[in-house]
Amino acid sequence: MAQFKGNALALLIGSLPLSDHNQAVDLVFKYTPDIPLWVQLPAYPEEGMMTQFLSGIPGVVQNRGRVFIDTSKTTFEDDFLNFYEDYLAITEGGSPLDGTRFVLTPETAKGFFTLLNTMRAAGSLPKALKGQITGPVTLATGLTDQHRRALFYDDRLLDVVVKTIAMKARWQAEKLSQWGIPAIIFIDEPGLAGFGTSAFISISRENISRVLSEVIDAVHQAGGLAGVHVCANTDWSLILDSAADILSFDAYGFFERLVLYKESLKAFFDQGRILAWGIVPTSDSKDIKKETASSLVEKWETQAARLESLGIERTKILAQSLITPSCGTGSLIPDEAIKVLEMTRDVSQTLRSQA
To answer: Is residue 46 included in any domain, yes or no?
Structure first.
C-alpha cells in the first residue's frame, strides 16, 4: 500500500452500455487514463454478473435461461475431485495458473483481453490497472443447485465457488501486474446489502468474513490490492474491519450510513487504506441529469468535512481517496453513461487541483 496512493484519481466500476469492447476501452482511457480497467458489457449475456466467472466450476448447467449447479450429474463427483486436484497443484504444488480452469476466457471476458492488448500497444504506463470479479457472497447466494437451494448453504459447493473466485482474482492480479504497476482487483458484492435481513438469517458474520478473506488473501498473494465494492447499504464494518485495501461505496446515496462507523473509519484511514467514493450517481436518470461536476464536488466537500470532524486530516482523506461512479453504467443509455464518465473525470480533476 505504501507504493500506491488514491490521490482522488478517477476510477470506474466496470460496466458500460456498449456492444463494442474496443470502443469501451477507448472510453476508459479517455476518461480514466490513470487507472484503466477492463469493461464488462451487459449487451452480452455471457458477461452478466452471475455467469461471467462460472467457468471451471463443476456441474454448471444452463437450461432455458436458468443457470445452476447440478450435483446429480453422473460426472459431478469426478469433476469435483478434479477441481481440487487442479486447485492443490497451484496452491501447494506451485503450478502456474495459466492454462488452468481458473483463468478468464475471451468467450466470457473479452474486455479483459482487450485491455491487455491495449496496454501492450500503449506508449506510456498508467498509475495502476483495475480488474473486478463477482464476490463470493453475491455469487453463492444468487446461484442455486438443481433443487433451487442457494450454494451458500451447501458447504462443498460454497467452498468450490470461493476457491474459483479467489483463483480467478489472483490470476487477474498476476496478469495486470506484468507492467510493474499496481494491480487493483475489486470484489463486487451487491449481495452484502442483504446481510442482516431475513434473506440472510442463517448466514453469520463469521461466514461472510471468512469467504471474503479467502478472496482478498488470494489477491494479496499475487501482489495486488483488493477492493470490495458494495453499491447499496450494508454493515460497513464487514469491509472496514477486513483486510481489504479499498472500500468502494455509493457515496451519493449512502454516505450517511457509512459515517456511522466512526471508530472503524478512523482505524481504516490510520492503516493507510483507501476509500473509493461513488460520488457520481448512476441509479437514477433524474440525478444524473440534474448533477454537475461542481455540485458533486460540493457534495464531496461536505462529506469530507464530516470525516475531518472525526479527526481525520483533509490531506490524508485526499491522499487515501479515489473518485468513482456509484456503480457500473451498464444499465444506462449511452448519453447518460458518458455524462457519468465526464463528471467522474471532472470531479477528480477539481479535487486533485486543490490538493
So the answer is: yes
